[in-house]
Amino acid sequence: MASVTEEQFGGFGMSNEMEQLYAQRLARYTTAMRNDKPDMVPIRPLVAEFTAKYAGYTCQEVTDDYEKAFAAARKCAADFDWDAVVPNMVFVWAGLVKAVGLKYYATPGTEIPADTAFQYLEPPEDDAHMREDEYDLLIEDPTGYLFNVWLPRVSHDVVRPGEPNTYRNNLSFVKGGMAMMQYFGGLGAQAEALRRESGTVAAIAGILKTPFDIMADKLRGYKGLCMDLFRQPDKVLAACEALAPHLLHVAANSADPLRQVPVTVWMHRGCMPFLSPTQFEKFFWPTTKWIIEQLWSQGIQTLFYAEGEWNANLKYIAELPERSIIYHVDRGDIFEIHRAVGEKFCLSGGIPNDLLAFGTPDEVRAYCKKVIEGVGRDGGYIMDASAIMQDDTKVENIRAMTEATREYGVY
Amino acid sequence: MSENQPTKPRPGVCIPWERKREELEPIQGDEQVLRKAWEDVDALGYTYVWFCLLAF
C-alpha cells in the first residue's frame, strides 16, 4: 500500500495504513464505550510499571525520566495488538516531585529500591496535610487554602505566607511550574506518537478525583477523615461540596476536546470496607454523582475506575445516566455487575491481577474467554486487567490476554 | 482581606480580574484585551496548584 504525504495527515507523518488502523481502533474503542457492539472486543490494558519491565527499564528509570516512560509505553503499543493505552500510566514524574519538594511520595532509587514502584506516603493522623480545625478555611476558599496552607505543608521548600521567603521557595514555583508545562506538553506529543508509530489510541484524557477521595488522600488522611465522619460530619459534607466545582472544572478543562475518550475518576476510598453503604450514600456519592452528571451534560464520559469491591454500591451507580460512565471492574463480581448495570454502561477490566501475575497463559486465556462470553457477548465490554498492571505481571500472560481477546472477541 | 487570601474565587481563578483591575491605573487601551491576558495566565496558576493536588 502506498504511503501518503505528511501534509495529507496534518503533518503527523502518518502512513495511510497506520491511519486506517488508528481509525479502526478508535471506532472499536469508542463504540464499546458507548455500550454498543463494535466489530470486536477492544483491548485497553492499563499498563504501568509493566511497560518498564517489558522495555528493559528499572522502575527508577521510568519514574525519574518520563521520556523513558513514554518510550516504554510506545514499545508496548507497537509490540502488542492493543486498541488503546494510557500514554503514561507511571504518572508520578520524580523530576516534578523533587522540583516542588513534595513530601508524600517515595520514589524508586531514592527513598525505596530502584525496582520498586513509587509509593504514596499517607501522613500520620497527628500530622495530616490538613488539620481537623481547618475545614472552614478550605470551604471558604479551596484554591487559597491549597496555595497558602496545603502546599507549604506538603512541600519541603514552600514557605507559608508571612514566613521569611527563601531561595528554595522561589525555585519551587519556577521549577515546578515549568516542569509541569514541560511534562504535559510531552504528554500531548506522546499521544500523537502513539497514533503515528503504532496506530494506538490514547485511552484517556483529563484528571479527576472524587471530593471524598481527595479529602482522604491528600488533605485529612483516611484515618483523620474517618474520625471526622463522626465528630464533624457537616464539615466533611461542606468540604466535599466546596471541592466539587473545582474538581469538575479541572476535569472538564483537561478532558478530550473532541469528546472521544473519557476522563478517568480514580476511586479507592468509597468501597467497602473503607466506607459502609450508609456512609457512601451520605458522604461519597452525592458530589461524585453530581460531577459525573455535569461532565456527561458536556458530552464527557467518565471511566469509573472502581478500585476494590464496589458491588454493595451498585444501586447508586445505577442512578447515573445511561452511557455516562465506563464501569471499570476491579475486585467486584463482573458477572453480577453486568447483570445489574450492563444494559446502561460499558464495562471494562475484570481479569484478576493475581492471575496475570501468578497464573499460566492457559488459565489467563480461559478466564478471558469466560468474561468475553459472559459480559461481552452483546458489546459494551473492554478487555483489561482488574487494576493497573505493575511489574509483577507476566509478559506471557499479557500476551495470552491479548491473543484471547482477538480469538474469542470477534462479533 | 490580606493579599494572600483572594476574594473567594471561582473555579479556574486565583486572583479575579475585578480585584486586579482595582490595583491598576486607568487603562488607556482596550480593557478586554488586558482582561483576557490576565485571566488566561491566572488560570495557569490555578491549574498548577490543582494539578499538584490531583495529579502528583
Question: Would you kindly provide a written description of the structure presented here, covering whatever features stand out?
Answer:
The complex is a heterodimer of chains A (411) and B (56). Residues 1-10 of chain A have low confidence and may be disordered. In chain A, the strands form three sheets. Chain A has a five-stranded parallel sheet with strand order 5-6-7-8-9, with helices on both faces. Chain A has a two-stranded parallel sheet with strand order 1-4. In chain A, strands 2-3 form a two-stranded antiparallel ribbon. Chain A has a domain at 47-79 and 88-196. Chain A has helices spanning 16-33, 49-55, 59-64, 66-79, 94-100, 135-140, 142-154, 167-198, 211-219, 222-231, 233-254, 277-297, 314-317, 334-341, 353-358, 361-375, 395-408, and strands at residues 84-85, 105-106, 119-120, 201-202, 263-267, 302-306, 325-329, 346-349, 381-382. Chain A is an alpha/beta fold and 411 residues long. Chain A has 17 helices and nine strands. The model of chain B has no long low-confidence stretch (mean pLDDT 89). Chain B has 56 residues and is an all-alpha fold. Chain B has a domain at 11-17 and 33-56. Chain B is elongated. Chain B has helices at residues 17-23, 31-55. At the A-B interface, helix 5, helix 7, helix 8 and helix 11 of A face helix 2 of B.
